[in-house]
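Lab meeting notes turned into a lecture example. A postdoc, R.K., suggested we walk through two folding results consecutively so the class can see how the record format repeats. The first protein's sequence and structure tokens come next.
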Amino acid sequence: MNAGETTSDECDSPVLPAGAIGGRAAFVTTHWSVVLTAGQHDATRALNALEQLCQMYWLPLYAYVRRRGYSPEDAKDLTQEFFARLLERDWVARADQQRGRFRTFLLTSMSHFLANEWEKARAQKRGGGRVVSLSCDAAEARCAWEPVDNFTPEQNFERRWVLTLLDRVMDRLSAEYARAGNGELYENLKPCLLGDRTAQPYAALAVKTGMTEGSIKVAVFRLRQRYRELLRDEIANTVETPEEIEEEMRYLFAVLARR
């Protein structure tokens, strides 16, 4: 079973780790909906929201460009230039005409950029401006150990998007537990987010942590609940309406299941 999946015996009410600050509302104004609705009236707010989204998507787009056959150096320049243009030019207005998933808008825009803009951009070599920080050396090191696959550039982009999203969720979850003074407990329980839930090492964890087996089961249940909440929260920022969240979650796990 993948991280974030739930079973029928789990309730839907939010449960936070002890000491965590209260959760967010069921659905708030998302980054993507801000980009779509504020572009004409509040450009600064729209660009700030767009920049936050871009921070999450640079690695999937970099991986997409690499899979298209560009060298690491060219892929870095391409991705940096693409985001510079996205943030500095009037692409927010274009986004308003292409309502849909943020990743779809990005991938379509990048494909257009590669086909029509890159050679011109290389000749002009931009300077300064608003950019997204890219850690391409780390990206290369990370992709180097990934197994060889037959994914298309588009499928690779989607898989990298999913893995980046899950990494963000794990980072937020780890930070929450650390702030609550439960960082060690989190590290002990983290493996329980993965695998078959009927074969979890509850007894061994009880011995290791000095907790009862029943307490371990409750702690794992809370960890899973909070993981799912944070996953929904991250996904919510990339869609336009709350109705799209569950559909996007199903799609996320379908992407992970591809071989």
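The second example is placed directly after the first for contrast:
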Amino acid sequence: MTVSTDDGAPAHARGHALADLGWEVRRTESGMVGSASLVPEMCVSGTAHLRTSILATWTDVVSGLLVVDAIRPRVPVTLELDVHVYRPLPGSGLLLGHGTLVKSGRSVSVAQVDFTDEDGEPLAFGAASFMAAPDASMRIDFETSADRIMERAGRLALPFAEHAGCERTGPGVAVLSRTEGVRNASNTINGGLIALTAEEAALSLTPGTSLASLGLRYLQPARIGAVVATARVRDGLGQIEVRDAGNEDRLCVMATSRVFGS
């Protein structure tokens, strides 16, 4: 589970692991649009294809901003998030994410994001559902500025998993190290980086592939870390559990994945 007020200040202000992804967001009449220039370091190791977990991160950012606007001053908490990719993603060029609010309810809000290339060719789509944090004392008392949310701090210089401190430690196992750069404004592990860890665990069993889909159910915050993802993959379909090793191995996220060609 990730509190979407990750988005309340520029990521680079805290030296965040997501800062150098260069995702910039602006408001439109119908919702929000995010954009980023893709570089090879964003690709899955051994491929020329953008990581699906990066789309999950960008889906969370855009959807979270839309929901913040709808329910402020309450704090939105991600319940579920999924991304589906039409074909292996490009590793270069400009990528756009067009976000719209689908539902704003008293208990659950839902937003979707459609990803295209700069010519408008559909690449993928994602959606996320949110609830207001049960703790009513958690409030958003500042004004969010979509134009500066994830503004570029610099070009990603290392492969994204290495940059974030995510390491494959064995077949079907990936670990996200505990650092200040992986936390959000609520001092829990960032949900997009949990998606990266789940992706790495699944792809360790199917090297040379990329994910056609990734779905995450956030059960509780990963408060301490390290975060450990353990995957089982059969015929390209993966089941992944993500646990907080520093908090009695509590189950934080259940995820599913599917690779292309399965």
